[in-house]
Amino acid sequence: MARRVRAYAGAVETRELRYFVAVAEELHFGRAAQRLGMAQPPLSRAISQLERRMGVELLQRDSHSVSLTAAGAVLLHEGRAALEAMEAAEHRTRRAALAAAGRPSIVLVTKAGASSELLAKLLHAYAAEPGSIPVDVMLCGPGQQARLLAGGRADVALLHRPFDDTTGFDTEELLTEGQVAVLPAGHVLSTHPSLRLSDLDDVPDLPRPRWPTSDGSYPPGPGPEVQSHSQLLQLISLGRTLMVSPDSCRSQLRDDTVAVPLVDAPRVTTVIAWPPSSRSLAVADLVRTAVRL
Amino acid sequence: MARRVRAYAGAVETRELRYFVAVAEELHFGRAAQRLGMAQPPLSRAISQLERRMGVELLQRDSHSVSLTAAGAVLLHEGRAALEAMEAAEHRTRRAALAAAGRPSIVLVTKAGASSELLAKLLHAYAAEPGSIPVDVMLCGPGQQARLLAGGRADVALLHRPFDDTTGFDTEELLTEGQVAVLPAGHVLSTHPSLRLSDLDDVPDLPRPRWPTSDGSYPPGPGPEVQSHSQLLQLISLGRTLMVSPDSCRSQLRDDTVAVPLVDAPRVTTVIAWPPSSRSLAVADLVRTAVRL
DNA sequence: CCTGGCCATACCGTGGCGGTATCGCGCCTG
DNA sequence: CAGGCGCGATACCGCCACGGTATGGCCAGG
């Protein structure tokens, strides 16, 4: 017999949503509770309360395993976006207060080591604009930029299609280029005039590096763990790993590394992205300057 | 002596943000409290708590007037978006649950009376597509579509540039057309072959109609209050008001009204819009169908 | 059959939230 | 100039909801 659930009353609180997202990501109440810094029973209760109040089953608890229902998957997706919007509101407000107190600035985020020439030109050109304000450059690991931009920690980002997801942002294309494999000088592969992506698979002595994921842990694999671009370059020159990167990285290579064009790698487009809700004149100026380059 | 405020700890709760938005919109604690269905003192306290926790002054309370600081204005703007995202997460989750229970559908929202031919063609064409699902059409007053779409009550919308704000949505243009003035048959102006917008100002016997705003109240003015398109058309044929509308409305006019082209009115572009976070195949199909028309 | 892992339930204490009463402070008015 | 009034802040109180501990129920694996 289907139990009738009374009509839903209030709004979802961020606390509840944070709890749900944690459980939906871990698919394990105990680990989620640990991540949230709380005990498991109140978490269980909060989730079932949320389900009861929404009148929707979000998680399926079969014996010894938790899984998402279709509705739960939607709430995970939309809820992440909503939590990011809450965060963004908070960060942007705090930054607006600082700006009003006399320290206006733009935070630009980009993947460490990417598009550095373009970035240098952009910063130089923008600084020459009348009315420009200081630009704080924030460098981050791959795939983190969009999160920082959506979370309001940055005002504008340089993203790289097709790797970065640009949905939800306004963008302008700046540059499209091919990719190269960066290899240790003297390695067998480095003597080829060009390579294919498949040539880089299963090179036992050059396993792909591993970057930390958003929770700070590393995916499993044989490659070395890296936190920064310079670290990676050093590991390449030591003959421990390789890197696939847009052409423009060549200008920053050490002379004990070699860049070999990849004929079948997807072309990379660098775009400048900003949140559609942005009302900042400074961001608009920066974007205009970038497009003119 | 500036009082040092301790570093901010937790996240902003939707409750606090709802409270702040209410006060920021009313600029009056008493009225805001009334709107929120609570007493004024706890509201005052919640706001000052929020300010203390964020370490940011949001409202300026001079004697007998409340105003927004720069930071407060940012939080109002970003906070509205964040609350809409929370709402959207909730509504979409509930609709996903219904869909999973066997009643999948798309909710399409459009301004009542606009683009009806286009809409009819679209619905017909989409219904003929393989794998199409029922489309619930939701009609609303001018300027409400974007809110319904952002709030997750609709999956897709027909918007009209330049009137509707499309920031934050993905869009495809469908149709661009001129505008006409719809007048009572027999009115002096209706005999002109064409008109300018300025000709419609200060026509004492045809004051512009007033639509309800988002809070349900009407702006002040001499024109009649209207809630629906058919109501408006009836008022026009009674000689009480006039309407400015895209060309395509002609097909639905009663024969006691006349449409006169406006030579200097901005051209109107009908676009189909959907939230960038949408993962619905049905929405994608509907959009593809619309673009092909 | 026993053990261990995992989520749910039961029960308890505390902190936060909202309510009422009242204060402080300008402004307006007679 | 005194009194009234409008409005936000403060004081104080009661309740509920949230989080913690202890424990139960259930299933899988050995």
TrEMBL record, chains A, B:
Biological source species: Kineosporia mesophila
SUPFAM superfamilies: Periplasmic binding protein-like II, Winged helix' DNA-binding domain
Pfam families: HTH_1, LysR_substrate
Disordered: annotated segments: 198-226
Domain HTH lysR-type: 12-69
Keywords: DNA-binding, Transcription, Transcription regulation
Matches recorded under PANTHER family: HCA OPERON TRANSCRIPTIONAL ACTIVATOR HCAR (PTHR30346:SF0), TRANSCRIPTIONAL DUAL REGULATOR HCAR-RELATED (PTHR30346)
Family: Belongs to the LysR transcriptional regulatory family.
Name of the protein: LysR family transcriptional regulator
Keyword Aminoacyl-tRNA synthetase: no
